[in-house]
Amino acid sequence: MDLGKMDSVSIKFDGKNFAIWEFHFRNFVAGQRLLSVLTGETKQPGDDAPMRDIEDWNAGNARLITWLLGSVDMPTGLSLRRFSAASDMWRHLCTTYAQNSASRQFELETAIARLAQGDRDIRGYYQASLHLWTEYDLLTASLVPVAASAAVVAERSRTRVLQFLAKLRSEFEPIRASLIHRNITQIDDVVAELMREETRLKSQAQIDNSGFESAFAVGRPPAASRPQFGSPATTEIICHFCREPGHIQIHCKKKNFCNYCKRSGHIVLECPTLSRRGKLRPASSTGSSSSARTAYPVTLGGGEGSSTAAGGSSGASLTPDQIRRLVQDALQEALSSAFATTVSQGKSSRWLLDSAAFNHMTRDRTIFAKLSPVDSMSLQVANGATIPVHGSGTVNTGSIALPNTLYVPQLRPNLVSVGQLTDDGCTVMFDSTGCVVQDRETGRVLGRGSKTGRAFVLDDYCGADGHGVYVDKAHAWEDSRGNMHGQSHQDTAGNGENCGLECSGSFCNKDDVVDLSAYSLDLSVGNSLWDLWHYRLGHPHSGRLKTMFRQNLLPDRVDLLQLGDISDCVNCIEAKTSQRSFQDSDSVYDEPFDLVHTDLWGPSPVTSRMGFRYFALFIDHKTRYTWVYFLKRKSELATVAKQFISMIRTQFGKTIKILRSDPGGEFVAHELLSFFQLEGILQQQSCPGVSQQNGVVERKHRHVLELTRAILFHSRVPVGFWVEAIHTIVYLINRQITPLLGQKSPFQALYSRLPDYSSLRVFGCTCFVMLPRQERHKLAPKVTRCVFVGYSEKHKGYLCYDPSDRRMRIAYHVKFLEKVMYYSTSHVDASSAESLEFLTTLPMFDETPSSPVPAAEPTSSSSSSESVEPSSPDNSSFSSSSSSSPSTGHGRSLDTSSSSSDSSTSHHEESQPPSPTQPLIPLRRSARANLGQPPPRMNDFVSYSVAPITIPTHYSQAARDPRWNAAMRVEMDALEENHTWDLVPREENMQVIGSRWVYNIKMHPDGAIERFKARVVAQGFKQEYGIDYEETFAPVVKMQTVRCVFAVAAMKGWSLIQLDVKNAFLHGNLKETIYMERPPGYEKGDSTMVCKLIRSLYGLKQAPRAWFEKFHGTILQAGFVQSQNDPSLFTRQTVEGIVILLIYVDDMIITGSDQDGIREVTEVLRNAFNLKEMGEVSYFLGLEIKRSANGLFVSQRKYILDLLESAQYTDCVPCSTPMEQNLKLSREEGDKLKDQSLYRSLVGSLIYLTHTRPDISYAVQVVSQFVGVATHLHLAAVQRLLRYLKQTQDVGLLFPATGDPTIEAFADADYAGCLDTRKSTSGWCVRVGQALVSWRCRKQDRVSKSSTEAEYRSMSEVSSELVWLHRLLKELGVDCRVPMRIYGDNTSAIQIAVNPVMHDRTKHIEVHVHYIRQLVAEGLIQVGYLSTEDQTADLLTKAVASSRHWYLSSKLMLRTAHQFEGGC
User: Fold this and answer.
1) Which residues on adjacent β-strands are paired with residue 616?
2) From the DSSP assignment, how many helices (H) and strands (E) are in the chain?
3) If one looks up domain 1191-1462 in CATH, what number appears?
């Protein structure tokens, strides 16, 4: 293969230039005659094809892969390595990067518009432009119709010529003007002429002895005689870089850039490259003080005695004064021609924006509100003339207010200095339609201007201080009608004879001077009496005080005519200022997206399934179409806003002009403001605390939340789906008609077509989704029952949540039962139905915070009564009819305002209990008739929040809710019935521990609420050993015992009955004397008395032991015998058979062959304890048990789903193995996690999962070694485990109904597998019949010196387990065959076990390891050989490939639920 051909692809793909790279690569491959292989048209030959065809295709495919990987960057190449065919790589690249053509097109258009010559030469500038143009043409080629391609190409060529010329540097201005007038349309011709001009300019600038220095062929005096920088003769020269006089840009020290060598750090005059080439020589040492500076040798131009320095040829004869005059004449002519279209010959009222003007200036004296004299000051205009400045002041024309404006009578136009505006803190933006002046800090629009010809005229400007006009109070006053009268200039006497300015007749006219003496008022006497009575009467209104003076009610007299119109005092203004009334907006927006309203809601007290807590609305003002985006954090708003703006530009071809929001911090972030300025989007903000100014989106928030609550109440869908509910409501609102649009829907207004209503369905209804083939077998149902929760934006289908799988399904094949709600009463019991009171309203009007963002926390019992004890005695005694009880039904009134009449209140109380948000002390309510009917402008202040059912943390919180009151009543009844304590007087030195209530909600597997639980617990952490307690140990059943019982019951066909003891710990008898404080709310007896505990109570350290002793005594009296192998196992042999009882705290399982004995023991336990019979076992200790003719199926599916949901891995990508093959982890590898809590929590949950999942035992054993020192690599291994569980959530253990009670064991070891300690890993498993009952994967406690020793230790460990299981099964009435067999794949270890002769290889093995020899000698155990391929325990010692993993899993009796139901 010719590797050199790879160089033919000159452009390398970097992730952004796909269009141009694809063009080059496709043509290159076509030249190699491999294009059909690349595109997939030539398929890979089959196995029956000729060998030559197969070899040719493989060779071509290899060449293409090499070329592809060699012409892309490293990240892209790594993403392609997973493909084996070049056509798959090519298809991946086209699918991934070609779809982004719209965004790339926008990037190219922006780059083309911003590209300028800058420091590039003509060739570099042309190549940069050509690169962008070429990629743009390739990207948009398919968008241009063939018939119009020629016209489009011609128009693009003309436009690009003009664009290329417009971005040239200033030295190319002459040639640019010439090319534009010649109307050249070919860019190649333009570039050729520009390159020739560039060569000419460089050659003239670099002539060594000719006497010409610059591109202008003009004569200059030698360096010794010409004026130096900064001298008076050069102060008229202005640098365009630093704006300082005395030098030009090419010699600017601040620019610090050389235009010759194109390097930073020096200027042309100091260029070392120019000096080395002999083109820069120091000037003569004689002359001025600048002789040490290098300078160009120049010719003496003009004047007598002109000669050429260094004998060069003579230069031009123009003197510097002549050059300056020519330039000034040219500028004056250009300025006159520009003003000719906008300025008339007479006085003009227009104000022209001028970037060259250093100050605002005007010739109209009459528009000055204030005018002050200036010292001798003059201006030099473009024609060289000097005109005087007569004054400076503030201009106020009514529409334009400009401070620091110069009065220049001889000036023709009125000029607004752009530079002065920017110095005043403004930003000026120009475009083809006009200009806008904004405040740089707040973004407020201060003024606007229009474009007339090529000049910009300022139409209005209000000033940067935020007021409408600039007013100097010292020189102006306001009459009663609000008209401003200004004093232009006068002396202190007001006679106008001496104004202090050097006035001419045309300027200072005495008739124009305003004499304010007529308005002089002596208010000293009247004001003092007025103020005195104003203060005496407590600051009344001025009109009321005038009336009192007018009616002679006050003893003093004040001339009211002399007082005039006196305003209130400053204290009155501070104390009495009220809100202004809001007027309807008269703004008209003719096009969509001219104005967009937006606001952010949150945080929600309920985090959604995907972790969202906020949502943002974007509303188009013209069409009222609404978009909703959901966020996890406020900081994501900038990203969401950019996505929305990009979507509008791409989908609708529109640019948002104005975005209106509140002044929240998320909307004024620097990132968002910079983006708006870059995009030219004006941001309007409501005033702080005035949400009415953003009323459109505030009312939309209320509307969306009201309808969201309605559909949640109706459907009874859990609150965790609030995101889906809001998304659905916004989808439906956009399709509902509104009077604002003339009874049209927003959808119709935006898309100009009617929406399709035929696909709408009832939110929360029951639906049946067709399952894909891989999720069902031939005898399984074809559909699964789901709940409909919305519509998909990206798919033409419905969003349906599958509660059994806890996943969201996007389906097209769906059957709906719209009249049957999934979470209806048929699926949810009464307590759960009442528990769906999860939506509460926030307070409105005077209770609502003034924040422009809706309140974050709801007003509920959990937040309003954290530290308030209830004063009602009913609450103290757990009354279920408390006056502050919340509503329990979803049909409660949604009116958030208070009732204005007793009748309405009583009717409300008859229909339902009061609201849970009712405070303990009633709020003071107004008795006015319009109570509850706010004015229309206040509608924006109603806000709502979605709140969950909160679990109380304090008694005062729970006492407000009748559901928790009922739960506490049940608990207290049980305590009293059981005679848990006696009330005794409190004595001195009595050791009294505290008590408290704890609350919890018990859930159904589908997420619905089963019941509310309340329990009194003692604060056992205050107990002292030896005083309040001694022994605390209580045994619990081993999981190996549970599995053995399951295996025996499955083989013998025994039923498994589950029992539960209510309040189990309350049955235990205490031996110690313990005193406890009365539980909160317990009012019996004297309040000073304490509880002397007779029975054990939850929270006491000895409570578990006391309960087990009580149960132990009771069950032994019933004729049971405690097992010697597991203390939690009890058996009773009868004539009819055997009864077996397992207990784990308060959960019990009874099985056996004696059915009468089972009923008898159940009756005994019922009489002794408060027993709950639960029937055939289905859920025990987190294990889900199913039974069929095939046996028992035990899984932990619900536990896995809960684990995935808590880890937010419900939507992860599944994988086929729990750990990567041959992966070895070490403590030293990777970056240590800053927070180890997540890792510890996940590993702890996974350990419990190994009770039914031996296939993950090895992976869990590995990751559990790094708890506390976990790194990101260890966390990645745990995450892979979660992905495997996502794939195998339905997998469980099968206990077959057939088989004989034969015990077999498999033992294996991974020699020195631990990288940190080099210890080996033991793995073994034990089967009873075909059922797997015990297994272990653990790291050995000693380092083995050989693989034989490691294997031998593993067999020794499993032999101990076999002996224990043999004794246990005997107690269960199962006769096991002996010898029990152990299978290993290490022949040396087998020989050591059966050969009692000691030899060298066993000298270092401890004596206790040889325990296996004794068992072999006794005939209990027999050791046999099994090949490694068939070694079942191999899965417990190492990570294997996918195919082997599933093979060994099947040998461990792991099955899926479908396989169990189908009998596979």
Assistant:
1) 600, 629
2) 40, 48
3) 3.30.420.10
Residues 1341-1354 have pLDDT tens digits of 888 888 888 888 88
1081 — alpha (psi -120 to 50), left (phi > 0) or beta?
left
> For residue 703, with 0-12 CB atoms within 10 Å meaning exposed, 13-18 middle and 19 or more buried, which class applies?
middle
Structure tokens at 59: 């060779």
Let me know: does 270 contact 294? Beta carbons within 8 Å: yes
Six-digit token string for 428 = 């000026």
C-alpha 259/C-alpha 251 separation (Å) is 10
Q: Is 297 left (phi over 0), alpha (psi -120 to 50) or beta?
A: beta
Rg (CA), the chain: 46
What is the C-alpha to C-alpha distance for residues 1421 and 1412, in angstroms, rounded to an integer?
A: 8
Asked if the model's pLDDT at residue 99 lies above 60, the reply is no
Same fold, 590-740 and 1191-1462: yes
**pLDDT of res. 564:** 44
C-alpha distances out from residue 1106 to 688, 971, 1069, 1398, Å? 64, 20, 6, 52
The CATH class for the domain spanning 590-740 reads alpha beta
1363 and 1378 in contact (C-beta within 8 Å)? no
Burial class (CB in 10 A: 0-12, 13-18, 19+), 3: exposed
CA–CA distance, 1039 with 787 (Å, rounded to integer): 37
Give a three-class secondary structure readout of 302-346: CCCCCCEHHHCCCCCCCCHHHHHHHHHHHHHHHHHHHHCCCCCCC
This model's pTM is above 0.85: no
- 435/355 Cα distance (integer angstroms): 13
Round to whole Å and give the CA distance between 350 and 339.
Answer: 11
Rounded CA-CA distance 705/1364 in Å is 63
Dihedral (CA of 162, 163, 164, 170) sign: positive
How much is the pLDDT for 1010? 79
Q: How many CB atoms lie within 10 A of CB 535?
A: 11
Separation CA 1122–CA 1437 (nearest Å): 36
Extract the tokens encoding 692.
């009415």
| pLDDT attached to residue 743 | 87
From 1457, 1461, 1464, select the one nearest 804 (Cα to Cα).
Answer: 1457
Whether 771 shows a pLDDT value over 80: the answer reads yes
- CA-nearest of 162, 152, 216, 153 to 190 is 162
Structure tokens belonging to residue 753? 């077509």
Question: Is residue 1022 within 8 Å of 1049, Cβ to Cβ?
Answer: no
Q: What is the pLDDT of residue 1401?
A: 59
Highest mean pLDDT among 1066-1070, 1387-1391, 1404-1408: 1387-1391
Domain ranges for the chain, please list them: 3-102, 115-197, 228-296, 325-472, 531-571, 590-740, 765-822, 831-921+940-977, 981-1181, 1191-1462
How long, in residues, is the chain?
1464
Report the pLDDT value the prediction gives residue 1400, as an integer from 0 to 100: 54
Residue that has been written with the tokens 């035992």 in this structure: 1257
Apex 332 CA angle, 331 and 334, nearest 5: 65
By the 8 A CB rule, do 778 and 799 touch? no
Say whether pLDDT at 101 is over 70: no
- Residue from 1168, 1174, 1155 nearest 1118 by CA: 1168
Query: What is the Cα–Cα distance from 443 to 460, expressed in whole angstroms?
Result: 17
- CA torsion, ordered 1213, 1218, 1222, 1226, to nearest 10 deg: 100
Specify the amino acid at residue 378.
Answer: S
> CA quadruple 1228, 1233, 1236, 1239: dihedral positive or negative?
negative
The string of DSSP letters for 1250-1295 reads TTT-GGGHHHHHHHGGGTTS-BHHHHHHHHHHHHHHHHTTTEEEEE
Residue 918 CA: distances (Å) to CA of 855, 955, 1369 = 18, 17, 63
